[in-house]
Design a protein that fits this description.
It contains 4 helices and 14 strands. The protein is of the alpha+beta class. Strands 7-6-8-13-14 form a 5-stranded antiparallel sheet. Strands 1, 2, 4 and 5 form a 4-stranded antiparallel sheet that branches. Strand 6 and strand 7 form a beta hairpin. It is globular.
C-alpha cells in the first residue's frame, strides 16, 4: 500500500533524516586504512544508542535474507555493492566502500547510502562514484509533483547509459516512512511518463547503484552480501526524498 504523508508528517521525518545523515558522515570519516568493518558497525550502533533511535537492520529478515541481518550498518567493499554484512575485515588502501544505513527516530524511518574510497583512489572508482552521484541527483530532480515514477527511473538510467554502464533492476529505490521498505519499488531503469503518478506526500528512497562492467550479481555465502558476477567494483548512493507541492525535498542531505 502506498501512503501519502501530510506536510506535518514530513516535518516529523526530518530528525530521522538528520540522524541517518550524521551516522553516514561519521562512519565515512572513520573509514580509513587499517579500520575494521566491525568497528564501523560499532560506531553506528553507539550513535543509535546515544540518540535513542532504533536500528532498521539488526532484526531485519526479508525473504531474500538467509537470517536476521544482525548488524546495524551495511558495509560493501569493492566487488560487493549491496547488503554488505559487516565482517572481520580490515580496510586496505584503495578499497571502494559503500555504506548503507537506515534508522527509526520517533517512529519515522529514513534510509541513505554513500560510497567512498579508502586511501589512494583509482581513477575508475572515482568515475563510478561520480556517475552514481550524478544519477542520484538526476533521479531527485525528476521527482516532481505531477510527474510519473518512470521519470525518476529514466533520469537515473540516462546518466548510467551515457557513461556506458549496464543496470540491474532487481534492487532499487522504494517507499519509506513507518517502515524501511514499502511501495512503490523504483527501478533504476525505466521509461519516462509511465508508472505511478508522483503526488505531494510521497516519500521515497531513491538509490542508484552500478557496477563497472556488469549488471549481474550473486549472493555471498554469508547469505546477505551481493557481489558482482565478474569481480568488478560497485558504487551505491541513496537519499530519502519527500515529494512536496514545491518539489523534491531531500530529508537525508549531508552537510
Amino acid at each position: 500500500m502506498i501512503e501519502l504523508r501530510t506536510p506535518t508528517e514530513i516535518d516529523e521525518m526530518r530528525p530521522a533524516g538528520l540522524f541517518v545523515a550524521s551516522v553516514l558522515e561519521a562512519t565515512a570519516a572513520a573509514a580509513r586504512v587499517g579500520v575494521n568493518l566491525l568497528a564501523l558497525d560499532r560506531l553506528a550502533h553507539d550513535m543509535i544508542r546515544k540518540a535513542g533511535a532504533e536500528s532498521c537492520y539488526i532484526d531485519y529478515h526479508p525473504s531474500f535474507g538467509a537470517s536476521p541481518f544482525g548488524k546495524v550498518l551495511c558495509t560493501s567493499v569493492n566487488d560487493a555493492v549491496l547488503h554488505g554484512l559487516p565482517r572481520d575485515y580490515v580496510l586496505r588502501d584503495g578499497d571502494l566502500l559503500s555504506l548503507d544505513f537506515a534508522a527509526s527516530v520517533d517512529g519515522w524511518v529514513t534510509d541513505s547510502a554513500i560510497s567512498v574510497v579508502v586511501g589512494t583512489p583509482r581513477d575508475e572508482d572515482l568515475r563510478l562514484i561520480d556517475t552514481t552521484t550524478r544519477a542520484l541527483d538526476a533521479g531527485i530532480a525528476a521527482a516532481q509533483p505531477g510527474g510519473r515514477l518512470g521519470d525518476i527511473s529514466a533520469a537515473i538510467a540516462a546518466v548510467a547509459h551515457a557513461d556506458g554502464l549496464s543496470i540491474n533492476t532487481d534492487f532499487g529505490g522504494h517507499g519509506v516512512g513507518r517502515t524501511m521498505h514499502g511501495d512503490p519499488h523504483i527501478p533504476n531503469n525505466g521509461r519516462g511518463g509511465r508508472g505511478l503518478p508522483l503526488k505531494p506526500g510521497l516519500v521515497i528512497a531513491i538509490e542508484p547503484w552500478f557496477l563497472h562492467t556488469t549488471d549481474k550479481i550473486f549472493t555471498d555465502p554469508d547469505g546477505w552480501t551481493l557481489r558482482s558476477a565478474d569481480g568488478s567494483r560497485g558504487a551505491h548512493m541513496e537519499h530519502t526524498v519527500a515529494i512536496t507541492e514545491a518539489g523534491p525535498v531531500v530529508l537525508t542531505a549531508r552537510g
